[in-house]
Amino acid sequence: MPCQDTPGVRFTFSAELTVPRALRGLMGARHAFRAEYRELAVENWEMPQAIPAYLIALAVGELEQRDITERSRVWAAPKVVRAAAADFADVGRMMAVGDDLFGPYEWERFDMLVLPPSFPFGGMENPLLTFLTPALITGDKSMAWVVGHELAHAWTGNLVTNANWTDFWLNEGWTTYAEWRIHEAINGRDATALEIALRKRGMARDLENFARSGQSQYTALASHVPAATDPDDIFSRVPYCKGALFLIALEQAVGRERFDTFIRLYIARFRFQSITTAQFLDFVAVELPGVLEEVQAWRFVYGPGLPGNTPEVASPLIAEVEEQARISAVPSQQMIAGWSPRQWKLYLELLPRPQTPELVSGLEGRFSLSTHKNTEVRQAFLLLASESGYSAAEPAIEEFLATYGRTVYLKPIYQAMAQTVKGLTWARCVFERVRAGYHPIAVAQVERVLKESAARLQS
Ligand SMILES: [Zn+2]
Q1: Domain coordinates of the chain in residue numbers?
Q2: Which of 106, 123, 192, 454 could form a disulfide linkage to 150, CB 3.0–4.6 angstroms apart?
Q3: Under CATH, what is the fold of the domain 162-302?
Q4: Cα of 129 to ligand 1 centre, how many Å?
């Protein structure tokens, strides 16, 4: 974590990894050479671009690589590397869009490493070696937007960095906005509006949780975090989505053309620097005079929740799903023909809770959602089943919790399981059985969910 007193510390480095000869050692840096001696191998790395400490990354494993473009390759366990390369095949187009929108890519390469399923996040944007969850490998590129997000960090986060964690939204809000722009250039406006709608729903869940625990102060973009607070305890999707929506509000106020010029100016002005929210706002005030007042920026930046002028999104892809969800009956194959996995996720989220066992079992019977190849569709169905008390899905829920360690998948499911005393006992039981396979961050977050549920049940 960057020191609060000395924002902006960045450094270059060189490093040497000694690993068993049968394995590969990787770093988020430029590979210099590998030398092998008897049972060992030494991998040497140089990082010529200055980075903040949180972007240092290394990994060791039995890994294979596949080139996707001249500037990008994927590393993964041998059994998934080919599928990963197919799912991430659009990375070259994404990089071209990024170059165009945000200015030249400054990191030479964009390589990716697929981690084990216990990785607690969707991705981590280490320069030259982005880490990704294997949950993105679906066979239909439907989760490749996470690659777009991590790539966008090359400009917003890694090049222009938040000075400390109270300015976290400068990394994540900007990157979510940039990710949506890349998404739009590749998949069009309708699919991007659907993506934004899904993110807003995810954020709404976090806003509710903060409100319930009396911590709505952490839903301001620039919120004061007391020194004793563990940043993981207040981590949420709010800086991501609310930050991006704030930037869309600015874009809509000045027009896209002017805002695009501003983006390139902003990145060029602060490249390889770490900046504060105040520096950002000062820069906007100079370059786009009057816009902060027009959108009432202080409500986004210092106010809790979502201001009344938060941008709305609409798309026929959302409208189709909303109509189906209103009917609350199992749709026919014909009705959902052509639905993308993202539409399925939104549909499952929109169905009112609790649902009848007939509807949940009808959906499973017709569409086999508990074994859907898209992890987020599967998670949304298992969450619906859990929130509806549908006991036939319990084995599938347990298997899912034992397979994935990504916290945004785990937390809502454990929360749903622990709504009753009996459910809490079940959730604790499953957690004790599978926790050894989770990352310590996921363990701490699930423990917190179960503790809060227990307190709620006792009160
Ligand atoms: Zn991010």
Answers
A1: 11-154, 162-302, 315-391, 404-459
A2: 123
A3: Neutral Protease; domain 2 (1.10.390)
A4: 14
CA 79–ligand 1 middle distance (angstroms): 27
Q: 332 — phi, psi (to 5°)?
A: -80, 165
Ligand 1 centroid – CA 30 distance (Å): 22
What would the mean pLDDT of 127-154 be, rounded to a whole number? 96
The CATH architecture assigned to 11-154 reads: 2-Layer Sandwich (3.30)
Centre of ligand 1 from the C-alpha of residue 209, in Å: 21
In the annotation, is 150 catalytic? yes
- Is the bond preceding residue 354 a cis peptide, omega within 30 degrees? yes
What pTM was estimated for this model as a whole? 0.94
Q: How far apart are CA 216 and CA 237, in angstroms?
A: 13
Q: How far is the CA of 173 from the centre of ligand 1 (A)?
A: 8
Alpha helices (runs of H) in 70-134, residue ranges in sequence order: 81-87, 91-102
Give yes or no: 240 in active site.
yes
In this structure, how many other beta carbons lie within 10 angstroms of the beta carbon of residue 332? 9
Q: What is the pLDDT of residues 371-386, one digit of tens each?
A: 999 999 999 999 999 9
pLDDT tens for each residue of 85-94: 999 999 999 9
Backbone angles phi, psi at 262, to 5 degrees: -60, -45
Is the pLDDT at 9 greater than 90, yes or no? no
- List the catalytic residue out of 43, 125, 150, 376: 150
Calculate what percentage of the chain has a pLDDT beyond 70: 98
* The residue type at 416: A
- Given a contact cutoff of 8 angstroms between Cβ atoms, the answer to whether 115 and 134 are in contact is yes
Q: Is the dihedral of CA 176, 181, 186, 192 positive or negative?
A: positive
* Å from CA of 417 to ligand 1 middle: 28
